[in-house]
Amino acid sequence: MIVENITTMRGFLLMGFSDNRELQILHALFFLVAYLLGSAGNVIIITITTLDPQLQSPMYYFLKHLSILDLSSLSVTVPQYVDICLTQSGYISYAQCMLQIFFFTGFAWGEVAILTVMSYDRYVAVCLPLHYEVIMGPSKCRWAVTAVWLSSVIPGTLYIASIFSIRFCGDRIIHQFFCDVPQVLKLSCSDDYLVTVGVADFLSAVAFACFIGIVNSYVHIFSTVLRMPSAESRSKVFSTCLPHLFVVLLFLSTGIFAYLNPTSDSPTALQFLVSIFYTVLPPTLNPVIYSLRNETIKSVIRKLLLSSKFTG
């Protein structure tokens, strides 16, 4: 990648993962394949959960919105980096960087929120089955999803409002493949970034509260499942709960590690790998993870592949 002196410019330089041209082509191919696979998988999930009558329960309604968030999150970061690798120009304008921060943090927060709602849905379905229709009625599900999307605007707005007050100096080089908040804060000239750090701490505290809620839901779920006399019933519950738990652990653990780990001027290969794990892999693998152990989704996908139209 050609490193330009952008000290006097308002934009930033995304360094990506390597200056080696062959590795850049390889990275572009990997990210492009991941983007195409992730987009295709999420579009399939969105399509079947919208059109197929078998997939109209609250669980699949929330899964559809998780796929919308995943597809949006992938589209914010990956195409930009593929373009950087192919053109060898890592320059991104100030406005583009701020928009990327706004949308990425918003979609990431939306994913945390929808995963929390999905864990509560599973808790009600397993632990309070007789009250499920009342607690998770259609209107309440719509209100929950509306709250998820409205709340996703808050992180981006807070970050952008606080970053606007930051003064940048020196070469505005971001050692990442997208405008990552910790990397942007590292470019600040003085202590004017502390407001943004306060925003990050606040959002981290709320995200931790969501995590505690998810853990609490699954503690009750597994304690209820283990008391079930039927092995078939236990297997059915695990087939819907374990994929969700895996997605939660993958997304939150890698995201927390990335944001709590101090940034450096020479990021390690591990730091770059972790950034892929919380930005690219979850939205790419979620459709696969949710489909592998769910017989209903697998049967609908087989029907989609074998037929040109949906049947009742």
UniProtKB/TrEMBL annotation:
It comes from the Eukaryota. PROSITE patterns: G_PROTEIN_RECEP_F1_1, G_PROTEIN_RECEP_F1_2. Its main location: membrane. InterPro entries: GPCR_Rhodpsn, GPCR_Rhodpsn_7TM, Olfact_rcpt, Olfactory_GPCR. GO terms for cellular component: plasma membrane. The keyword Transmembrane helix applies. PANTHER family: OLFACTORY RECEPTOR (PTHR26452). This is Olfactory receptor. It comes from Mus musculus. The lineage of its organism: Eukaryota, Metazoa, Chordata, Craniata, Vertebrata. The gene is Olfr113.
